[in-house]
Amino acid sequence: MRTDMLIDGEWIAGSGDAFTSVNPATGEVLAELREANEADVDAAVQAAARAFASPEWSGLLPAARAKLLLRVADLLEEHADEIAALETRDQGQPLNVSAGFSVPNAVEHFRYYAGWVTKITGVTAPLSIPDVDYRSRREPLGVCGLITPWNFPLMILVWKLAPALATGNTVVIKPAEQTPLSTLRLAELIEEAGVPAGVVNVVTGGPEAGKALVRHPLVKKISFTGSTAVGREIGAECGRTLKKVSLELGGKAPSVIAADADIDAAVQGNLLGGLLNSGQVCAAYTRFYVDAKRHDEFAEKLAGAAGSLRLGNGLDPEVHLGPLVSAEQVAQAAHYVALGKEEGAELLTGGNRPDGDLANGFFYEPTVFAGVKQGMRIAREEIFGPVLSVMPYEEPEELVQLANDSEYGLAAAVWSRDIGTANRLAHQVKAGTVWINMMQGLDAGAAWGGMKSSGIGREMGWEAIEAYTEVKSIWTSLV
After folding, report:
1. What are phi and psi of 122, to 5 degrees?
2. Contact status, residue 361 vs residue 325, Cβ threshold 8 Å
3. Domain enclosing residue 199, as ranges
């Protein structure tokens, strides 16, 4: 497969230093790539700007643009097995995640936004001014910079790319340096689908390439998914230059297990919701508030289920959990486990790196702490690994305060047999998404994004159409 950058329809090696993409399950080097320098980023942005102004793209009829997106979806589906395996090798997620969730979700998004292309409308409105006709229209922004994370490289890219193209923008993509390969393979399919040169460009590299993209004066919007710390820096830079910006950032999702909850269903749902992709999910359920009378039962069942999960190379269909993406993530998980022990939490299972056949990969055992207190760092800080905290509560009235006592507000879960109780809690918790009696669900039609330090703006649904367009008002004198 290609490992060069795609700029203006040409595959270019780039001018910067070499870096490698590594299989986190084995430590094997998968590919060598080049860091994009400022000149590479500028070339990609200039190409996108030319393509945006070109009649070949800007003059494309909506039905023709929709057809291109549908063709990309078809090609992605035709190559689904290949791309799922590539995602598993590059990121580590098991095939049941990459093939069963990530790639199908990406296909769904291209088809969903292909359907929107012919339905993006303005409005007419009566004004209190005589002899004037007023209407509005939605227009594309121009060049959009898409900066994507390493936990779901293909899927999260498509959340941004599909609506950006559906609305007529052009893009420069900067994938995470840890996991660039599925992005480059998708770029090949986009070329094959017949998308004009320069509409989609890909530059590879780390933070410096991202900074150059954010600062470029011809970029009209940045969409970033990643850490809250980096998101704040991007938001500040976009504020200085008045770029539009969407930020989907960190999370520390609370999962509230009411006294009347079905404990076995809650254990199963929270196990999956907490350890999907080895906990490398912004919306992972990581702090569980359980009625004190049922705390021990829930914690013991959760720990037993977590301890029974099989770790291994994600290409093995029998594996439940793959590796973390890098040695840095392993070190971070180990750091927080040590903190949990020091702060007095009870370690029920896990807390170590496995040895033997898995020693060469970036594996970490699924870990469950019980008796966690609200002020402990494992309960407050994003770990982004397979470390779960079970916390007892005494009175139902304190649940909302406990759940909202966090800088984050991306997602939350509520478990209760009482639909009234569940919905009241869902309304009161400050989170962009709340799931009731279920693990995380995502759909192209459902808006996605965070509150508080979990971000600005929304992806998916009509909200993404709004995010990649601006409204123009047109007044016409009737006299």
Report:
1. -95, -160
2. no
3. 5-249+454-477
Smallest CA-to-CA distance from 304 within 361, 356, 263, 362 is with 263
Q: Is-catalytic flag, 248? A: yes
Q: Are residues 16 and 151 in the same domain?
A: yes
CATH number at residue 178: 3.40.605.10
Do 276 and 236 lie in one domain? The reply is no
Note whether 232 and 289 are same-domain residues. no
What b/e sequence results for 208-225 when a residue is b if at least 16 CB atoms lie within 10 Å of its CB, and e otherwise? ebbbbbbbbeebbbbbbb
Does 324 share its domain with 240? no
The catalytic position among 87, 177, 248, 365 is 248
Which secondary structure element, helix H or strand E, spans residue 163, and what is its range?
helix 153-166
Angle made by CA atoms 89, 90, 94, in degrees to the nearest 5: 50
In a domain, 425, yes or no: yes
Within-domain flag for 169: yes
CATH code at position 367: 3.40.309.10
Query: Angle, to 10 degrees, between the axis of helix 103-116 and the axis of helix 62-78?
Result: 170
Q: What is the pLDDT of residues 411-458, one digit of tens each?
A: 999 999 999 999 999 999 999 999 999 999 999 999 999 999 999 999
Q: Given this model, what pLDDT does residue 15 score?
A: 81
CA distances for 189 relative to 46, 75, 207, 421, angstroms:
22, 6, 26, 48
317: pLDDT strictly greater than 80 = yes
Question: Is 28 in the same domain as 148?
Answer: yes
H or E element, residue 389? strand 387-393
The one-letter amino acid code at 264 reads: D
50 secondary structure, DSSP code: H
For residue range 266-302, what is the model confidence (pLDDT) as tens digits? 999 999 999 999 999 999 999 999 999 999 999 999 9
- Write down the pTM of the prediction: 0.97
Total domain count, the chain = 2
